[in-house]
TrEMBL record:
Protein's UniProt name: Olfactory receptor
Transmembrane segments: 24-45, 57-80, 100-118, 138-162, 191-214, 234-256, 268-287
Source superkingdom: Eukaryota
Source taxonomy: Eukaryota, Metazoa, Chordata, Craniata, Vertebrata
GO molecular function terms listed in the Swiss-Prot or TrEMBL record: G protein-coupled receptor activity; olfactory receptor activity
Keywords, alphabetical: Cell membrane, G-protein coupled receptor, Membrane, Olfaction, Receptor, Sensory transduction, Transducer, Transmembrane, Transmembrane helix
GO cellular component, one term: plasma membrane
Domain spans labelled G-protein coupled receptors family 1 profile: 39-251
Length: 309
């Protein structure tokens, strides 16, 4: 990645400077990241190999778990390693790549959550037309469009980052590279770039959250026309989705829809957004979903049985 800045590397301040707390950060986030990998990979493998989970809802859940895994991986391993490092150094190119990955998979998660809401809307509000509308090739096209949209968003973020000039200070008061902490180090007027950041990332987060809340409100209202069993099943699924949406978009909106000011809870909000949400998503999606849990039992029971023979 070409760059003509005087700064060739950045130093990350991390979450804490206290030695004992750094060891706690290492242990806690190693557990969280391991749980994220195990939980999401378990969902991915189960959906991939279980015939019972062939509906569009699980097709999109597959990509949500994939995006969660990649999103967490773009941040967590470096945070874990840096927790025990005296110097937390990241190259300029490495910093730009982290910005790209963070926004690529974060935006992909947003689009997948929207597609999951669309799927639930069609399934509950247009049940007779559901097989016609949500065909497999249609779902594939939607996922491809989501990847394209995420890539365009990430390219826009990198374009903004590359416009920043760094002429001396290189200490990032954060545990990862993102545009907000980089704006504070830039040796230039960053008003326009911050405005573009808010109008890009902030607008995507806010408008997507509003769209999702409206769609789930319409879905929940339409449940009064369904049977008691249908309401129970749909309500359980939609509740899980709504919890995931709130947990993801709350921190996202907090971080990307405000001026470049610093608050004491910024890092904790960022931790919840980048580490906590990918960890909680598989728990929420599986513990409240009997079909996924049954498919997991059957799949691993068959695997264990075949290995014992």
């Amino acid at each position: 990645m070409q760059q003509n800045k005087s700064v060739t590397e950045f130093a990350l301040l991390g979450l804490t400077q206290d030695t004992m707390r750094q060891k706690m950060v290492f242990i806690i986030f190693l557990i969280f990241y391991t749980g994220t990998l195990v939980g999401n990979l378990l969902i991915i493998v189960t959906i991939q190999f279980s015939r019972a989970l062939g509906s569009p809802m699980y097709f999109f859940l597959f990509y949500l778990s994939f995006a969660d895994t990649c999103f967490s991986t773009s941040i967590a391993p470096r945070l874990i390693v840096d927790a025990l490092s005296a110097k937390k150094i990241i190259s300029y190119n490495g910093c730009m790549m982290q910005v790209f990955a963070l926004h690529l998979f974060g935006c992909m998660e947003i689009f997948v959550l929207i597609l999951m809401a669309v799927d639930r809307y069609v399934a509950i509000c247009k049940p007779l037309r559901y097989p016609t509308i949500m065909k497999h090739h249609v779902c594939i096209i939607l996922i491809i469009l989501a990847w394209i949209g995420s890539f365009i968003h990430s390219i826009a973020q990198i374009a903004l980052a590359l416009k920043l000039s760094f002429c001396g200070p290189n200490l990032i008061d954060h545990y990862c590279c993102d545009l907000q902490p980089l704006l504070k180090l830039a040796c230039m007027d960053t008003y326009v770039i911050n405005l573009l950041l808010v109008s890009n990332s902030g607008a995507i987060c806010s408008s997507s959250f509003l769209l999702l809340m409206i769609s789930y409100f319409v879905i929940l209202r339409s449940l009064k026309n369904h049977s008691a069993e249908g309401r129970r099943k749909a309500l359980s699924t939609c509740t899980s989705h709504i919890i995931v949406v709130i947990l993801f978009f709350g921190p996202c909106i907090f971080m990307y829809t405000r001026p470049p000011t610093t608050f004491p809870i910024d890092k904790m909000v960022a931790v919840f957004y980048t580490i906590g949400t990918p960890f909680h998503n598989p728990i929420i999606c599986t513990l409240r979903n009997k079909e996924v849990k049954n498919a997991m039992r059957k799949l691993w029971l068959v695997k264990i049985t075949s290995e014992n023979k």
